[in-house]
Design a protein that fits this description.
This protein has 5 helices and 5 strands. The protein is an alpha+beta fold and 250 residues long. It folds into 2 domains: 73 residues; 166 residues, Alpha-Beta Plaits (2-Layer Sandwich), CATH 3.30.70. It has a 5-stranded mixed β-sheet, with helices on one face. The longest helix has 71 residues. It is elongated.
């Protein structure tokens, strides 16, 4: 047993003496490979990633600067007027008062007497779906007039804010009509969900023309220039219902 151990030691000593001049270079080469694969390459990859992040952040910063320059050149009063106009046309929420005010305004202007009405607001915690994915507040309205008066009422309602769409007309006995109206609204995007690095798109001439046209529509003051609908003057008791709740939102 001891002879074998001595033989191994002697063999190792012999090999070391024979190749000792190559041990240090081989060790340096091996260490170099370890450093290259586990230190140099990861550092290069990190550098490339950092350069990409720097390029992205620089692009965002340039976009924010460009947006700032654009906003600095806009007139605050003009923006406020435009926002007020479009918010009256397309409210940010289910605005019952604006709907009733619009109906009352059209009734006063056309001379059409109002009968029963029924709000179909759905779940008050959720937004219903309207055309083009816009949520809507639906109202069934009875008009104490014939079809000619109903058409006149609908035509005037089309030029009155908030934006609405008459989806159904029914003729009833006794010279009255029933119409189904959808008043649309759109929730305003929250500030926290806006990416400030996205380029700001200025209003096109078509957009400005549309806002100018909206400003000429009926009931644009937003201050109740027409009296609100007088519930006591309605011919019969009106019902306001909410699906699944059975309670009135007023």
């Amino acid at each position: 047993m001891n002879e074998k151990v001595n033989l191994d030691i002697n063999m190792f000593h012999f090999l070391y003496q024979k190749y000792k001049d190559f041990v240090l270079p081989l060790g340096i080469i091996a260490a170099s490979f370890v450093l290259f694969f586990f230190v140099v390459i990861p550092q290069v990859q990190n550098y490339i990633q950092l350069q990409q992040q720097v390029a992205q952040e620089t692009q965002k910063l340039n976009a924010i600067k460009s947006n700032y320059d654009i906003l600095s050149g806009l007139d605050d009063n003009t923006l406020s007027t435009q926002l007020n106009t479009v918010s009256l046309a397309l409210p940010f929420s289910k605005d019952f008062a604006s709907v009733l005010n619009a109906i009352s305004a059209v009734s006063a202007k056309t001379g059409v007497l109002l009968g029963d009405f029924d709000f179909r607001v759905g779940d008050l915690s959720k937004s219903g779906q309207g055309i083009k994915s816009y949520p809507s507040l639906v109202i069934d309205l009875k008009l104490n007039t014939d079809i000619k008066g109903a058409v006149k009422f609908i035509d005037e309602l089309y030029k009155t804010v908030p934006v609405s769409e008459t989806t159904d007309i029914k003729l009833s006995s006794g010279g009255s009509s029933e119409i189904n109206i959808s008043f649309y609204y759109k929730t305003l995007v929250g500030k926290s969900s806006i990416d400030q690095s996205n380029p700001i798109t200025l209003l096109s001439q078509g957009d400005k023309d549309m806002i100018s046209s909206l400003s000429s529509w009926n009931n644009m003051s937003g201050e109740g220039s027409f009296p609100l609908l007088n519930l006591n003057a309605i011919s019969s008791q009106s019902a306001v219902t909410s699906s699944g709740s059975g309670t009135t939102p007023f």
